[in-house]
UniProtKB/TrEMBL annotation:
Similarity remark: Belongs to the Mg-chelatase subunit H family.
CDD domains assigned: CobN_like
Organism in which the protein naturally occurs: Desulfofundulus kuznetsovii (strain DSM 6115 / VKM B-1805 / 17) (Desulfotomaculum kuznetsovii)
GO process terms (BP): chlorophyll biosynthetic process; cobalamin biosynthetic process
EC number: 6.6.1.2
PANTHER family, alphabetized: AEROBIC COBALTOCHELATASE SUBUNIT COBN, MAGNESIUM-CHELATASE SUBUNIT CHLH, CHLOROPLASTIC
Keywords assigned by UniProt, alphabetized: Ligase
GO MF annotations, alphabetized: cobaltochelatase activity; magnesium chelatase activity
Transmembrane parts of this sequence: none
Top-level class of the enzyme under EC nomenclature: ligase
Protein name in UniProt: Cobaltochelatase, CobN subunit
Signal sequence segment: none
Pfam families in the record: CobN-Mg_chel
């Protein structure tokens, strides 16, 4: 009789040892045992899963080695149930993090037998697996061969190629450490050593040593397990990488997967949180890909969803600096004895060389004296004009860089000729060569250049580029060195030297240098000059480290693989192996993550600007006063009502509020009191909106009144278990907070005030409570006294909020100074600790303090349960608004989906899309990860299933490919339902399209696949929507041009079967069905007038739909800045809301004026974005243009200010206002047109004079 064992493993590395063990048993004992081995990758399809189930009854023993619980075996429940039904011995075995006791309960072995089987497998290696087979022969064939107990192998230890023992490796490494070279620690799994899968480790050691370093490789079992004897990562790092409390290594290269030191939302294994912080050296993530070399090389995406989760997203929670694949998993020849194909990790030598070089550059930062270090600081500049140098959202870049340079000088860096402040620093930069070259003659450009790259030098660099990169560059820009920034046989370098610091301006990306390419080349390579600039930084200036300042530049958006870049990817070609530090706003995890993953950036997140209540101003404040007088007159002096009545309407018409409220005087008169209630509610909604109070300065905490404002904003919403301060104050005053918020215009006759006035009182009381601690010198112990004094009674919940504000938020905000501290820490080759990201004023104040290397989310937990609730509310509100306008449901909704907002919210947009189709996620109860989908029955849904077309950003595609697959699965599930077409628009549209395609001769299978496409994005490796490039280049005529570019850049289908398939006709067909569009905004820390991406993606969709259908869709903006109270506005409503709350608000304008050059540049950008929104979606009425012109351009004091701090900004503002007139977008009065033209000529003359 032959013993037959079914051996399933989710840990594929042990298959080689298993094969060797079977051969060894056969040699010594004959063919007494047959092993049928299956790996997880073998069970991807239903046929293989059925084969596995058919195998179970034929076996005498079933061993299932899991990783991550039962979900790691497809059909787990059926396999185990079948084994138990057939009374077949079953051992369900754990790996790290699994619940051993629970898995024992799923097995049917005795405890002793289970113990032995578990230890043989978990200890692993050929010898233990061989003994498992012998033990099984004895146990089930009644043999009596001698068999040792399971033998523990070292769980952790030093490793060096060729050494036979740890003692030998330790002695050898000790000698190497005496050489005084930079030391690179290497972490790799014990299982690789046990299975002999260490070839890639050997190559990494070789690369480090060849480049002048010492490698200190350590293998380990990452989880501490006292029963097995593994000490875990905390012990390993402390005992192997440090000595006497000091680091023995200068940097660590980490090849481990998952997060090792922090609890992620879905990964519960936790070691000591501050492990790497205590060690204090950079942590470099070298990716060991689960894909093969050919799969990775041929993939336009780079890394698949599994790699992104295990080797990118989760390691970011540890503070890893993400690099590239250094080894790939190769499947060896299938073993005829076991039926399994062992795997081997094979090094990617060139990528290994890059990671080793990067690690050693970080290591040398720890050893090189500060006075000798060369530092490059790069300012973003898009569009490449003089008004926008140092563009970084929410950051006063000149002041921040100046503070950084001062701190560097104090720390011993050679910073020379530093101007006295940020303003003078900008003047110095502007006096040199910048990207704006139109004002200067070629000879003057050459004179101003800080450096030059000889044509021959660049050609040498170019010749070393990968061949396909060379071809791409020559296709786009001609032979090297091209024409961009090429003068007098040189490529010119813009910037200035400040001692050993180069302060430069990021080179032009290229689309504005050749606008014709916008129409057909979303994959446009950077100009030759761009790559020459970065290579000059590395090889000529010899920078030790590069800083990019603020959100965001162009480097991380260059064409190439999405994640896991190759040497031919343009971000990799540019940044090469330079250590890269990137101060970045904390509320933008998506775009910051892009920099982390495509340019190995160490993020140092910075605080958002102080948020403050918009308040009331100018005519709006006057109307509020009149409304108050009207209410008082109703109670005290009715004779005044007629005159106040007329005055109110006069002011409403004068300020165009009738347009906002969509009401005529005739309609208002029909129910005057109802009109007044709506008017008052609208004014209060504007007044109560949070807006930014100026810009943040790196490392500068809010203080005084700014601190009070920030605390008010941070405590406005609940923060986890800590309640809302405003809501608690409302309660103690006897107000119904929900009623006040839902209808602030309601006049309460009993209290003689509107609900809005009561909200004002609540806000004022909340402010006074916080002021008592910030400015009044009180301590948190005195909170009960302050509450009693100000509110007239005690309240434990208010004291709890105040304690949170004083003991948690105030210290967290004070710690903002660590933004600069960690910049210096990174310069010194230190470890920048990880931290969460998000919008702090959206009930996420616990993400503070800033100054950390932020992480985002686990992609497999999107959408979260919380996001599902918000997404459903957004969907309901959207449909309700559409029905109010149209009286029916939309058949199809176009949704713009970005990575950033979904990282902040956990997937609100995804939840909305799923719920519109009538599908809900199914979550794993323990981990919170999505494990499936369920169709919501029509009876429960209560409405039709709405079709969706999603335009996803390129970053979303890279970060959330698993979510794209989830949505694609939902579309197919809904399309397959047998439901009436008027209740299932998805199925109706799919059936119709399939029929049309089949009639055209397309085979039914292909027709159905194409008809199911619902997720569209950029071509693989490309980013953006193209529309903003076209508008900025002024290279368009009408919405047809804009729509054409929108389809060209975004018409690539993504599904479970297609990755970036050119599907532009299908995209047009989907857009032709779209009746409503939406993009949701989840925070007021940023709005749709802050960036051209907003109008490029959403406005571009509106323009494309209009161009294709001949009429615009209904277009909406979802507002979940308060997740418990979502709102949906039309785009023109949201435009007017933003204009009234922020854009035209003197409070905001004055706050920006405090920041001089940068504030002016941001105002310039705002006008440009407003123009883009009107060009794409037609949302600016004439009075808004007029208001912009008066507030920003024609006001004499504003003109004087612009001319003093940033005259280029004023020029750009006037230029865009004139373009709006010329294109017929604004029907301006002749005198307005004339005034703007005169102003433009005046500024142009002044700017020409500056260059002479």
């Amino acid at each position: 009789m032959k013993l037959r064992i079914l051996f399933y493993t989710a840990i594929e590395g042990e298959l080689g040892s298993l094969s060797n063990a079977v051969r060894s048993v056969h040699r010594e004992y004959g063919p007494l045992v047959e092993v049928l081995a299956y790996a997880k990758r073998d069970l991807t399809g239903p046929e293989k899963q059925a084969e596995l189930l058919d195998t179970v009854p034929c076996c005498h023993l079933v061993i299932l080695h899991l990783m991550g619980g039962p979900d790691s075996l497809p059909s787990f429940d059926r396999v185990t149930a079948l084994a138990r039904e057939q009374a077949i011995p079953l051992a369900v075995l754990p790996s790290a993090g699994d619940d051993t006791r629970a898995l024992l309960g799923l097995s049917n072995l005795s405890e002793e037998d289970y113990r032995l089987v578990r230890l043989y497998v978990c200890y692993g290696g050929e010898e233990n697996l061989k003994n498992l087979l012998i033990w099984s022969i004895n146990r089930y064939l009644k043999k009596f061969y001698p068999v040792p107990e399971p033998k523990p192998l070292p769980w952790e230890g030093l490793y060096y190629p060729g050494c036979q023992s740890e003692a030998q490796a330790a002695a050898l490494l000790e000698e190497k450490l005496k050489e005084g070279k930079p030391v690179v620690g290497i972490l790799f799994y014990q299982s690789y050593r046990v299975t002999g899968n260490t070839g890639f480790v050997d190559e990494l050691i070789n690369q480090i040593e060849n480049q002048g370093g010492v490698a200190l490789p350590v293998f380990l079992y990452a989880t501490r397990n006292d029963e097995l004897g593994s000490r875990g990562i905390a012990w390993v790092v402390e005992n192997y990488f440090s000595r006497q409390g000091r680091p023995l290594v200068d940097v660590v290269v980490n090849t481990l997967m998952f997060a090792q030191t922090m609890a992620t939302p879905t990964f519960s294994r936790v070691e000591e949180k501050d492990l790497y912080l205590r060690l204090g050296v950079p942590l470099i993530k070298a990716i060991i890909s689960v894909a093969s070399r050919s799969e990775w090389e041929n993939s336009q995406q780079g890394l698949g969803p599994l790699d992104v989760v295990m080797s990118v997203a989760l390691p970011e929670f540890d503070g890893d600096l993400i690099t590239v694949p250094v080894a790939t998993r190769e499947e060896l020849e299938r073993d005829p004895l076991t039926g399994a194909a062992p795997i081997k990790y094979v090094p990617v030598a060139e990528r290994m060389q890059k990671v080793a070089s990067l690690a050693l550059r970080w290591a040398r930062l720890r050893r090189k004296p500060n006075r000798e270090k060369k530092v490059a600081i790069i300012l973003h500049n898009y569009p490449p004009r003089n008004d926008r140098i140092g563009n970084a959202f929410g950051l006063d870049t000149p002041a921040s860089v100046h503070r950084l340079l001062l701190a560097m000088r104090e720390a011993g860096y050679q910073v020379e000729d530093l101007p006295p402040d940020g303003t003078a620093l900008m003047e110095k930069i502007l006096a040199g060569l910048t990207n704006e070259r139109g004002w200067l003659e070629p000879r003057e450009l050459e004179r101003r250049a800080v450096a030059r790259v000889e044509k021959g030098t660049y050609r040498e660099w170019f010749s070393a580029f990968p061949e396909n990169s060379q071809e791409h560059l020559e296709r786009d820009w001609g032979p090297p060195p091209g024409e961009v920034f090429y003068y007098g046989d040189h490529l010119l370098v813009p910037g200035i030297f400040l001692g050993n610091v180069f302060l430069g301006v990021q080179p032009p990306r290229g689309f504005l240098e050749d606008p014709s390419k916008i129409y057909h080349s979303p994959d446009l390579s950077p100009p030759h000059h761009y790559l020459a600039y970065y290579r000059w930084l590395r090889d000529v200036f010899q920078a030790d480290i590069v800083f990019h300042i603020g959100k965001h530049g162009s480097l991380e958006w260059l064409p190439g693989k999405g994640v896991g870049l190759s040497a031919a990817c343009f971000p990799d070609l540019a940044i090469n192996d330079l250590p890269h530090v990137y101060p970045y706003i904390v509320n933008n995890p998506g775009e910051g993550t892009q920099a982390k993953r495509r340019s190995h950036a160490c993020i140092i997140d910075h605080l958002v600007p102080v948020m403050t209540r918009a308040g009331s101003y100018d005519e709006l404040a006057e109307i509020e006063v009149i409304l108050k007088e009207y209410n008082e007159a109703k109670m005290m002096d009715a004779s005044r009502l007629p005159s106040l009545h007329n005055l109110i309407w006069e002011k409403v018409a004068l300020t165009h509020l009738d347009r906002d409220l969509k009401i005529t005087r005739e309609a208002a008169e029909k129910d005057w009191e109802d009109f007044l209630e709506h008017l008052h509610s609208y004014l209060h909604e504007i007044k109560d909106t949070l807006i930014r109070d100026g810009l943040h300065i790196l490392g500068q905490p809010p203080a005084g009144e700014a601190l009070v404002e920030m605390l008010l904003a941070l405590t406005r919403l609940p923060n986890g278990p800590v309640p809302s301060l405003r809501e608690q104050v409302a309660g103690i005053k006897g107000f119904n907070y929900e009623a006040l918020l839902s209808n602030p215009g309601y006049f309460d006759p009993d209290r003689g005030r509107t609900y809005g006035e009561m909200l004002d009182e609540i806000d004022n009381l909340a402010r006074r409570l916080l002021e008592a601690f910030v400015n009044g010198g009180y301590t948190v112990d005195e909170a009960p006294f302050i509450v009693q004094k100000l509110l007239g009674k005690q309240n434990e919940e208010i004291c709890r909020v105040l304690e949170y504000a004083v003991n948690t938020l105030v210290p967290a905000l004070a710690a903002t100074k660590q933004e600069l501290d960690n910049c210096l820490n990174a310069l010194a080759g230190g470890f920048v600790p990880p931290g969460p990201s998000g919008a702090p004023t959206r009930g996420m104040a616990d993400i503070l303090p800033t100054g950390r290397n932020f992480y985002s989310v686990d992609p497999q937990a999107v959408p979260s349960r919380a996001a599902w609730q918000v997404g459903c509310s957004l969907a309901d509100a959207l449909l309700e608004r559409y029905r109010q306008e149209k009286g029916t449901y939309p058949g199809s909704v176009g949704i713009v989906v970005w990575a950033t907002s979904n990282m902040r919210t956990g997937g609100d947009d995804i939840a909305q899309a799923l719920y519109l189709m009538g599908v809900r996620p199914v979550w794993d109860e323990k981990s919170g990860r999505i494990k499936g989908l369920a169709v919501i029955p029509l009876e429960e849904l209560g409405r039709p299933r709405i079709d969706v077309t999603i335009r996803a950003s390129g970053m979303f595609r890279d970060a959330f490919l698993n979510v794209i697959h989830l949505i694609d699965q939902a579309v197919e599930m809904v399309a397959n339902l047998d439901e009436p077409e008027d209740l299932n628009f998805v199925a109706a549209h799919v059936r119709q399209e399939v029929a049309e395609k089949v009639a055209q001769g397309i085979n039914p299978e292909q027709a159905r696949e194409e008809a199911l496409w619902r997720i569209f994005s950029d071509p693989p490796g490309c980013y953006g929507a193209g529309v903003s490039n076209l508008i900025t280049a002024r290279n368009w005529r009408d919405e047809k041009d804009l729509g054409e570019v929108y389809v060209t850049w975004g018409g690539y289908a993504y599904s479970r079967r297609s990755f970036g398939k050119d599907a532009r006709p299908a995209f047009r067909q989907r857009l032709a069905l779209v009746e409503a569009t939406v993009k949701n905004e989840d925070t007021r820390e940023i709005d749709m007038y802050d960036s051209d991406d907003f109008y490029s993606y959403h406005g571009g969709m509106v323009a494309a739909v209009k161009a294709i259908k001949g009429e615009p869709p209904m277009s909406f903006s979802g507002d979940s800045s308060d997740p418990a109270r979502v709102r949906v506005r039309t785009l023109d409503e949201e435009t007017r809301h933003i204009f009234r709350a922020r854009v035209l608000n003197p409070k905001w304008i004055e706050s920006m004026k405090r920041h001089g050059y940068k504030g002016a540049g941001d105002l310039s950008h705002l006008v440009e974005v407003a123009f883009g929104w009107d060009a794409t979606a037609g949302v600016l009425e004439d009075w808004l243009y007029e208001a912009l012109a008066h507030k920003y351009a024609l006001d004499p004091s504003m003109q004087d200010w612009f001319k003093e701090v940033n005259p280029w900004a004023l020029q750009n503002i006037v230029e865009h206002l004139l373009e709006a007139i010329e294109r017929g977008m604004w029907q301006a009065a002749p005198e307005m047109n004339e005034a703007l033209r005169e102003l433009y000529l005046e500024i142009e003359g002044e700017l020409e004079a500056r260059t002479e």
